[in-house]
TrEMBL record, chains A, B:
Belongs to the class-IV pyridoxal-phosphate-dependent aminotransferase family. InterPro entries: Aminodeoxychorismate_lyase_IV (IPR017824), Aminotrans_IV (IPR001544), Aminotransferase-like (IPR036038), BCAT-like_C (IPR043132), BCAT-like_N (IPR043131), Class-IV_PLP-Dep_Aminotrnsfr (IPR050571). Pathway: Cofactor biosynthesis; tetrahydrofolate biosynthesis; 4-aminobenzoate from chorismate: step 2/2. It catalyses: 4-amino-4-deoxychorismate = 4-aminobenzoate + pyruvate + H(+). PANTHER family: AMINO-ACID AMINOTRANSFERASE, AMINODEOXYCHORISMATE LYASE. Coiled coil: none annotated. It holds the Pfam family Aminotran_4. This is Aminodeoxychorismate lyase. Keywords: Folate biosynthesis, Lyase, Pyridoxal phosphate.
Length: 271, 271
């Protein structure tokens, strides 16, 4: 089910600036039995995005109510909130009066085999690199062509994600997940202040495991990691089994973070 | 009037990847009395964009026919063609079967006072800089947040455009137009192979004035230009009167290019 500005609808104006320019933000939020354990973090990131793009932040209670409404018949689901600067005249100049478009929609939770949590997934090393744009880094905006291009680089169903670097040879993330590497026993996750998205699952892990380092992570260093794994608010904590021909084995850090993920309220067994 | 996949409509699916990820392209094409003098150049750029994003290029004859249809009652208008990868499941992976969305819409031609063509427009020096992304540079894709942020930097109606640089201090363009500077008597327009859009009016001028140079243009050099002017497929050739406190006067190069613009079939007098 889907609500557009509170009304049941599955369409938006073809003049919406979300379509014309990608002028907006989104969040994908996992719900488990009416609960969304990372809801507050998603709201914080959405508010940060609104501040950066100078969009009015929607009322949180209203978003929660709409989430309940669209997910009413589902036990587990992914909520997508899309927020745009609304309909505008042709041209980049923001409308004098902004009436944002708010889309709230529920999608089935993707079914991941349990073996992925146990054994991990395989990554393609993407050739597409992320551009440095500090004004847009960290937030989850609607300009996602880099991710689309990176994800289009492979179609082998045995490969679950892609490893994406910046233009300086630093590892940044997967196409739709953050990344952690264990280097000399210390969990490291790449800084996302020039490119990449500051994931909420990543934020939850950084809070729970304060010895994690946030810094630039050169690709060569990531390849020597003792553990490599992904964090995603939808898919959770996923060990990386291999990046191309370089293989990894799950270790104690990823297992601890998986345990924390489960403790937050996200089962890793699929229904 | 507007056509979505050939049918009169003003809305698109809220699940369109054009909205979800900015996964698509657009063109804005000026029509004068049923003629679009730069049509072929717009089609060439759209085809290049399709190739880069691996989208099927729509049939050109069909686009022309739809343009005639939406502009039937208008003497002069701006046509916007928007092409997206269509509706897709949640996630960056392109759908197995792509059914693109094609939006063709006519808008009134913006009325520019003749004095702008005679005396020029004032530019704001934008703080927003463009990121280097060769995979997306040159084409007119739907990821336009950088332009939105740059254009949002001023709201003084006396300022008509913004001067936008890259992260290395090179001038690239205006927010919605290309830029030419006359340096030591030679017209120079910035290269757009790392960022920026390869404008069709710019391409028409480069063909007609083959002594133009296409190269990196450091900001300091642009400030010392004897002439500075913009090219836009909608607004034509516009002298720059000032960038902040630095003033410029129209000279022989901009006048020659304006003459060529008029000869292409674009009057600079407004009805």
């Amino acid at each position: 089910m889907m609500l557009v500005n509170g009304q049941p609808s599955e369409s938006i104006s073809a003049l919406d600036r979300g379509l014309s320019y990608g002028d907006g933000l989104f969040e994908t939020i996992r719900f488990e039995r009416d609960a969304a354990p990372l809801w507050n973090r998603h709201m914080q990131r959405l508010a940060l995005g609104c501040e950066r793009l100078r969009l009015p932040m929607p009322n949180r209670a209203l978003l929660w109510q709409e989430a309940q409404q669209v997910g009413a018949t589902l036990l587990r689901f992914v909520l997508r909130i899309t927020l745009t600067r609304g309909v505008g005249e042709r041209g980049y100049a923001p409308p004098a009066v902004v009436v944002p478009t708010r889309i709230v929609a529920a999608f089935p939770l993707p079914a991941l085999p349990e073996s992925l949590y146990a054994d991990g997934i395989r990554l393609h090393r993407c050739q597409t690199t992320l551009a440095d744009q500090p004004l847009l880094a960290g937030i989850k905006h609607l300009n996602r062509l880099e991710q689309v291009l990176a994800r289009a680089e492979w179609n082998d169903p045995a490969i679950g994600e892609g490893l994406v670097c910046d233009r300086h040879g630093n590892v940044i993330s997967a196409t739709a997940a953050n990344l952690f590497a264990v280097i000399d026993g210390v969990p490291v996750t790449p800084a996302v202040d020039r490119c990449g998205v500051a994931g909420v699952a990543r934020a939850a892990m950084l809070d729970a495991f304060p010895h994690c380092q946030v810094r630039d992570l050169p690709h060569d260093e990531a390849l020597r990691a003792s553990e490599l794994f992904l964090s995603s608010s939808v898919r959770g904590i996923l060990p990386v089994q291999a990046v191309g021909d370089t293989v990894y084995a799950p270790g104690p850090v990823v297992r601890a973070m998986q345990q924390h993920w489960r403790a937050l309220g996200f089962p890793m067994e699929q229904a």
